[in-house]
Write a structure and sequence with these properties.
The chain is an alpha+beta fold. It is 61% helix and 8% strand.
């Protein structure tokens, strides 16, 4: 059963009301997208709607559809190479100019959450929101000691709608996994489940506060990035330091102040690789509304990280795998790349690794040494995923958030400095990180740190050995019992099939016979056919 069918009807109605079918001429759409356009046209709301004259109808439609659709718009807003300019103008506004909720609701939520009156908490609270996004909106204020702050407030009553939309997505993921090999290779259901938890965590500002403090600690004293201080936080409200800067997409300001955009771009990529490999704690929602640049020192500006609600972490083995994969690509060594993927356990047995290496070289090879303005990372990812589908590769779900972040980084890099050489910058960073992590001295040092724990655990070895033997004995008995049950199930299935065949044969024989006999006699045979069916239902 399709969950929340009424919600699907609501989304259909909103798409029709805002005439989303008129955003792009039908002849310019991919063939697979045209049936969806026709479906929107069929809704009665499209027949009387005048929304096609609204220059912001895409923005308004995504806002009304809910936070998940706003998130989609934010992701697309970084793709100037894919989205027509007239649509991009609307999507950019979703980064921080979503329609705000009422100020009196915001004030009430702050007072309830922080358990104090606004006048007690702040010397000044500005009613007009500074920014409004999909999950929360931000008001400016001042503390009684004069510090300027921002007050972030979660939108009221959005959690039920997010849960409902994810239940629909989960159903869709199961449906696609049952039919498409690519969906199974990507573990689509698991990806949706992980992203559901990420978004639900974003509703808890106390978690965002903890992430912000961790990232602030990681970059304390850095000349590359500044993370604002958090003063207090609850699930619904966070009070933090107010910063001064401009969005990373404000190229006009950078030009006016004479900033070195190439240096800024290099700093941005260095920050990303530092977060992923040094800290294993990376900002995973890097649209321009969340990344600002200081303007106080144009000669040596710093990035400012905002909205750390969505962060990513990788296991140590996944970190090493990603680093080695990127280095193999940079060195144009696709045989080594396939070996790394094989060692990670992503390639099933029997795969033709030589063919896989050739396809990777043909797909990924041309992007080496290309500047950002010629690099279509998202398009390359699609091709790599298609290769993974054809060769049955298993893509770990925990890497999908990193891939999404890389698409964001590419979009930001295109805006900031299109000629940036991502590979030239990344190679020494990754090479140094891999050397440090495969250094035998470091491995011995880590082993030495673990020796006390190993010695303390040695006293438990006899008890663990006895427990293991006991568990093996129990497991053997359990397996024997399971085998007997499987054998009985096999016999039951065979008997059921035999009964089905007898019943079906008897029913058809009686039915065919009845059609050949006079009516009074045929009734008797029809009754007998009914008795056969009844016997099969209760037997």
């Amino acid at each position: 059963m399709i969950p929340h069918f009424s919600r699907l009807l609501e989304l259909w109605q909103l798409a029709a009301h805002h005439r989303l079918d008129t955003l792009i001429p039908e002849e310019e759409l991919p063939a697979k997208a045209r049936p969806l356009v026709q479906l929107i046209k069929l809704h009665p709301a499209a027949w009387t709607s005048r929304a096609s004259k609204d220059p912001l109808r895409l923005k308004h439609a995504l806002e009304e559809m809910g936070p998940l659709f706003v998130k989609l718009g934010q992701l697309l807003s970084t793709r100037r190479d894919l989205i027509p300019p007239e649509l991009l103008v609307q999507l950019v506004q979703l980064q921080d100019r979503v329609t705000p909720f009422a100020t009196d609701i915001a004030r009430q939520q702050v007072e309830t959450s922080l358990n104090a009156k606004i006048e007690t908490l702040f010397a000044r609270f500005d009613d007009a929101p500074l920014a409004a996004a999909s999950i929360a909106q931000v008001h400016t204020a001042a503390l009684h000691d004069g510090r300027e702050v921002i007050v972030k407030i979660v939108r009221p009553a959005i959690r039920p709608q997010i849960i409902k939309d994810f239940e629909i997505l989960n159903w869709l993921g199961h449906w696609l996994e049952a039919r498409l090999e690519a969906a199974r290779a990507l573990h689509l259901v698991q990806v949706i489940s992980d992203y559901r938890q990420v978004i639900l965590n974003e509703l808890d500002l106390s978690l965002e506060a903890a992430n912000t403090m961790q990232m602030r600690h990681n970059f304390m004293g850095s000349s590359m990035m500044y993370v604002p201080e958090v003063y207090t936080a609850t699930k619904d409200v966070m009070v933090a330091e107010r910063i001064s800067g401009v969005p990373v997409s404000d190229i006009e300001t950078f030009e006016r102040l004479g900033m070195d955009r190439a240096m800024l771009g290099e700093k941005g990529l260095t920050i990303f690789f530092t977060q992923v490999f040094r800290d294993n704690f990376f900002h995973a929602d890097m649209h321009p509304g969340n990344v600002f640049v200081e303007t106080l020192n144009p000669q040596n500006p710093r990035f400012i990280a905002l909205d750390c609600a969505i962060v990513g972490e990788l296991s140590k083995s996944d970190q090493m795998t990603v680093a080695r994969l990127l280095l193999a690509v940079m060195n144009n060594n696709f045989e080594q790349l396939i070996q790394i993927v094989h060692q990670a356990g992503w390639i099933p047995a029997g795969t033709d690794q030589n063919t896989l290496a050739r396809e990777m070289r043909r797909t990924v090879g041309p992007m080496i040494s290309k500047p950002m303005d010629q690099l279509d990372f998202a398009g390359i990812l699609v091709q790599v995923m298609d290769i993974a589908r054809r060769h049955h590769l298993e893509i770990p779900p925990q890497l999908m958030l990193l891939l999404k972040t890389l698409v964001h980084v590419e979009g930001l890099g295109r805006d900031l400095y299109p000629q940036l050489d991502i590979w030239k910058l990344a190679k020494p960073i990754l090479t140094e990180w891999v050397k440090q992590n495969v250094n035998p001295m470091n491995s011995l040092k880590e082993l030495g740190q673990q020796i006390p724990d190993m010695l303390m655990g040695a006293t438990d070895l006899p008890a663990l050995l006895i427990d293991s033997l006991h568990n093996l004995r129990q497991q053997g008995a359990w397996q024997d019992r399971q085998w007997r049950e499987l054998q009985q199930m096999r016999l039951d299935i065979q008997q059921t099939r035999r009964r089905d065949w007898i019943a079906a044969s008897g029913f058809l024989t009686l039915l065919i016979t009845a059609t050949q006999l006079p009516w009074p006699v045929a009734v008797i045979f029809l009754i007998l056919a009914g008795i056969v069916v009844l016997w099969r239902l209760i037997a």
